[in-house]
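User: Here's a chain of 180 residues. Predict its fold as tokens.
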Amino acid sequence: MIITAIIFFILYFIDQITKYFAQANLSTEINTKFIPNVMSFRLDYNPGAGFSTFEGSGWLLTIISGLATIVLGYFLLKNDWKHEKYKSFLLTMITAGCVGNLFDRIIMNINSLNTTDGRPGVVDMIDFEFLDIIFDKLFGSSFAICNVADVYLVIGLILLAIDLLFFADRRKKKYEASHR
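Assistant: Prediction complete.
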């Protein structure tokens, strides 16, 4: 459990510090090129879910994120770093992403009650320009601007799905065969 807590807090801290630096140093109007035609940085606030869906559903999304965090927390308690390091790391990464965006949603909702304009949505800052080109060709729109927590969620969920679909059974059979 201590490994989970350490990794979780490191990942969560990275997400929150990048959001802080984005708010302090980036503009909503200007893209700061990082790798030309691949990735740039620009401050954006997303009051909805992925790709700005469910905009205006702040409290509902906060409740859903909170419930997802509780479910993920349950699975984190069962992390088995000795036998399932990869799966344990991915679950920890996914949970850190979920909690990172949950924190932003809570701040957004509190700000909406006080009618201040501190954080009008989840803080986003990473613009994958190469994905904009692909999405423009396929859908006639640009790809979403995201944040580090989103990257944790997407990469973690994709890798976890691949692991569960293609490798988990093999690992389990190999483990059982070696312990007979």
